[in-house]
Specification:
The protein is an alpha/beta fold. It is built from 17 helices and 13 strands. The protein is globular.
Length: 384
């Protein structure tokens, strides 16, 4: 049977996209997963990588090499996984799926001359965190160099939406297939609302750059027909600044009166919780960088499978799906006032129509379609 290696420099417990990727392939191929941590599964072999601990000294040394543009040494310091290469190379994989740009040098070291490499770009790597000064100083040139060196050599590639696919094709001459972050299909029926309040929800990873306080400001402009829950995961490796900001953010939310900040859900509980407890998903993220501007996140698809209506800012990919399927409202600007203006006229019949449209969209916007795309791409690599 064809053997696959899936590489991810992450904890799979927090990476829904890679977990779905594994689910797509584990019944058709012999699969090994190299990552920091994951729940064990009899259908694949788990190969644990010990995460590189970036001490202050290691950060300082890597910064010097990044500034000098000596990328090969900087990479070895930042991603010190070369001790695993000889062992993984012995396993002679047919296909290696590399997730995110930082795994590509590692993947090519393992591949040798035999394995074919399929690259899954979760973001547009050359402009990943372009809104952050330290990233522009230390990592922009590094990421661009990795992309230029390795992307033209891959045998196949995918990314999350058409906007990023076009950006990669324009820059590196390879056309990725599009595999969205769509959730699995859930056989649910919309929970139609017969009385107020309308229960709004936003869930995801807490990041300062996404300006989550805008949603609290929005609630101050709405009447008591609306309540909002913010379900956030604060990653363990978040900076002390982010953790302190989150504590202040929670106090601000509590003081607003109609906003709760709740702990994260298990991934297996997200869609059912959205369906059972909420009416409308909120996505209001200012386009502070290219990836935010062109994002198409898990949370949109979770809400669709939960049969929720949507209230979103004018990020083009998210706004397009919301408008095309008539899932809810799209603000004209990335401001609390603009989205509040769209929500204020909302009635229960309008809300229920949006939920019914989400029910129809759930048949098309689910992981089943993506599974076929990935399996077809792998089959083409095997036959090429």
């Amino acid at each position: 049977m064809t053997s696959l290696l899936i590489i991810c420099f992450n904890d799979l417990k927090n990476d829904a996209r890679v977990k779905r990727q594994i689910e797509f392939v584990k019944n058709d191929y012999t699969v090994t997963v190299a990552c920091f941590d994951a729940h064990k599964d009899a259908k694949y072999t788990l190969y644990n990588l010990k995460k590189t601990k970036l001490t202050l000294f290691r950060k300082a040394i890597s910064s010097i090499f990044l500034l000098l543009g000596i990328n090969s040494i900087a990479y070895r310091i930042l991603h010190n996984y070369y001790r695993y290469i000889s062992d993984l190379r012995k396993k002679d994989f047919d296909i290696i799926i590399a997730n995110d740009i930082e795994t590509l040098p590692f993947a090519f070291q393992i591949a040798g001359n035999r394995s074919k490499i399929f690259f899954d770009a979760h973001e547009y790597a050359p402009r990943h965190f372009e809104d952050r000064l330290y990233w522009r100083i230390f990592f922009k040139r590094f990421n661009v160099a990795l992309c230029r060196q390795f992307i033209p050599k891959v045998h196949g590639m995918c990314t999350i939406n058409n906007s990023l696919a076009k950006a990669y094709e324009d820059s590196y001459g390879i056309k990725p297939v599009v595999i969205t972050n769509a959730s699995d299909y859930f056989n649910l029926k919309p929970q139609l609302r017969e009385q107020y309040p309308i229960r709004l929800v936003h869930h995801g990873i807490f990041t300062v750059s996404r300006q989550p306080e805008i949603m609290i400001d929005m609630m101050k402009l709405l009447d008591d027909r609306f309540i909002l829950d913010l379900i956030y995961l604060v990653p363990e490796n978040s900076s002390s600044r982010t953790k302190q900001y989150f504590e202040d953010f929670k106090k601000n939310a509590q003081a607003s009166g109609r906003v709760r900040v709740l702990p994260p859900l298990k991934s297996s509980e997200i869609v059912s919780t959205l369906h059972d407890q909420y009416d409308m998903g909120i996505i209001l993220v200012p386009p502070v960088n290219f990836n935010y501007e062109n994002g198409l996140p898990n949370k949109l698809f979770d809400c669709i499978q939960g049969r929720l209506a949507m209230a979103v800012g004018p990020l083009k990919e998210i706004a397009y799906i919301t408008s095309y399927y008539k899932l809810g409202v799209v603000s004209k600007e990335f401001t609390a006032q603009s989205l509040a203006d769209e929500l204020r006229p909302l009635t229960l019949p309008m809300l229920n129509d949006f939920k019914m449209n989400a029910d129809a969209a759930a048949f098309e916007m689910n992981a089943g379609f993506n599974k076929k795309i990935l399996l077809d791409a792998i089959r083409k690599l095997i036959l090429s």
